[in-house]
Specification:
By secondary structure, the protein is α+β, with helices and mostly antiparallel strands. 40% of the residues lie in helices and 21% in strands. A five-stranded antiparallel sheet has the order 7-6-5-4-8. Strands 1-3-2 form a three-stranded antiparallel sheet. A hairpin with a 4-residue loop joins strand 6 and strand 7.
Length: 237
């Protein structure tokens, strides 16, 4: 890991996944020694996390269920960055309260000095440039869950010619390009990679079960887009 702080946060993420991790497993995942794992576990305890350890040759670590999560550990510059990002989202999607609610909740978790920095950032920042078309953050969340869980989604879709269809896809990535939000997905019925505009999707449902991750067969999404969709697909509909 590139710093003790990042490594400690990585350790926390592993422990939050549940179960007991052996010292050797953690050392391998963190690319560190068993001694370093022991020090990082103590750092988490010092921050208020109830990390339990089992000593001996088969030493193991786990995060006690029901552990109370301490307040966010952020610096002043990090707070300013997050608040600015949320302000941009608020300006881009004024009808959706998700970003403004998230900003209020974040400010409530901060200690007084950082809360003042957050308020100062919000007061002094104004977003003038028009953003992209509004995006449904609930839809973004569903697609994110599908990618993370290896799940499929079904939805109704209206293409650029006004034709309607029902689709079942394996989402790969969603992205913002030319002021529009898109998702790249593998279309099960058409046996091909396709590009869908989020604002043309409706009734999106997360499917039950999971599938093995399907490898995107192009160097990058950008390369796929700029080479006529790999010179094989039909592109955005």
């Amino acid at each position: 890991m590139d710093s003790p702080s990042n490594r400690t946060l990585h350790l926390l993420a592993l422990l939050q996944a549940g179960g007991e991790w052996s010292a050797d497993e953690l050392a391998e995942r963190l690319d560190a020694s068993r001694r370093t794992v022991r020090r990082d576990a103590q750092r988490l305890r010092d921050l208020g996390y109830d990390v339990r350890s089992r000593p001996g040759p088969g030493a193991g670590y786990r995060l006690h269920p029901g552990t109370k999560i301490p307040p966010l550990i952020l610096g002043a510059d990090e707070v300013a960055t997050i608040i600015t990002g949320l302000l941009v989202l608020e300006a881009w999607a004024p009808e959706d309260p998700a970003a403004s609610v998230a900003r209020v909740k974040l400010e409530q978790t901060l200690p007084p000095a950082l809360r003042r920095r957050a308020a100062a950032t919000a007061l002094s920042t104004q977003i003038l440039q028009d953003g992209p078309a509004p995006v449904d953050f609930a839809l973004v969340g569903t697609l994110s869950d599908a990618v993370a869980q290896g799940a499929r989604v079904t939805f109704g879709y209206t293409d650029q010619h006004g034709r309607e269809s029902q689709r079942t896809v394996e989402p790969h990535r969603h992205f913002l390009r030319s002021r529009r939000w898109y998702v790249v997905a593998y279309d099960i019925d058409r046996d091909d990679w396709r590009l869908f505009r989020l604002d043309r999707m409706r009734g999106v449902l997360l499917g039950a079960g999971a599938h093995a991750p399907r490898e995107f067969p192009f160097p990058s999404i950008e390369a796929w887009l700029t080479t006529d969709f790999g010179r094989e697909g039909t592109g955005a509909e």
